[in-house]
Amino acid sequence: MLKLVPPIRPLRSVFGFLILTSFLPACHNQSSDPDPQGAVTRLIRLAGDRDPEVRLTAVLALGRIGAEESASTLRERLQDNDSRVRQWSAWALGNLNRPDALPQEQAVSLVARLGDPVQPVRLAAAQALNELDQDPGIARWLLEAFQSQESEMRKAAARALIGQVGSDALPTLIRASADQDAEVRQAVVAALGELGDARAIPPLLDRLAHDPADSVRAEAAFRLGKIGTADLVWPLRQAAMSDKDAQVRRWAAAAVEAVSSVSGSG
């Protein structure tokens, strides 16, 4: 998954520029600020400013600092009427210094943003959730979001699920591997591959052989190569020789090499 990087852009608000330059030392190294706690306190206050440029700059700075005491403010900014503020508040929540600094209510707020009408906000929320250590509660909320009728929410939830769920989610993921949306299927294939569970192999092989989307077949080939059992050499070799898409063939060939090197198959 691509990492969000705070934008370097001209600030339309002169006040926003002044905020950014005032707090740059704290953003890079809290110890270099003579009053790091004071800097965070001022930024928290400015995150509620009436000017969206000021709010945006404040949440970016809070995300750079990563102070856990900013979590509740960033959660509030997830409801901001400016989509950029919502997006970078989600990023900032995932960038807090301590993994346990994201209490349950913050995680719930991020899951809710998976249904945001603006795609960059959904992606930022999915990434922030994906950054967290595996947590049964978060996985449960993501699986619930995954049942949404809205394809955009399913896409975002599927991305966030990668690495967050255990084998108990396998039945849900197997059903979702046939989702009508190719992006959802690709993310589900990735999540299945990350499980490393032998029961995930049949649905992955099915996607490799029959999925209409090149991206999904390529993902399946890559994930099967990571699983690496000897019985996968033949289906992967078939895909490497006969798939209609060159990228799928390349990934399948690479997977054959990976499996062969691990299993000793020729």
From TrEMBL:
Gene3D superfamilies for the chain: Leucine-rich Repeat Variant
InterPro entries (UniProt xref): ARM-like, ARM-type_fold, PBS_lyase_HEAT
GO molecular function annotation: oxidoreductase activity
Pfam families xrefs: HEAT_2
Signal sequence coordinates: none
Designated name of the protein: HEAT repeat domain-containing protein
Originating organism: Nitrospira tepida
Organism classification: Bacteria, Pseudomonadati, Nitrospirota, Nitrospiria, Nitrospirales
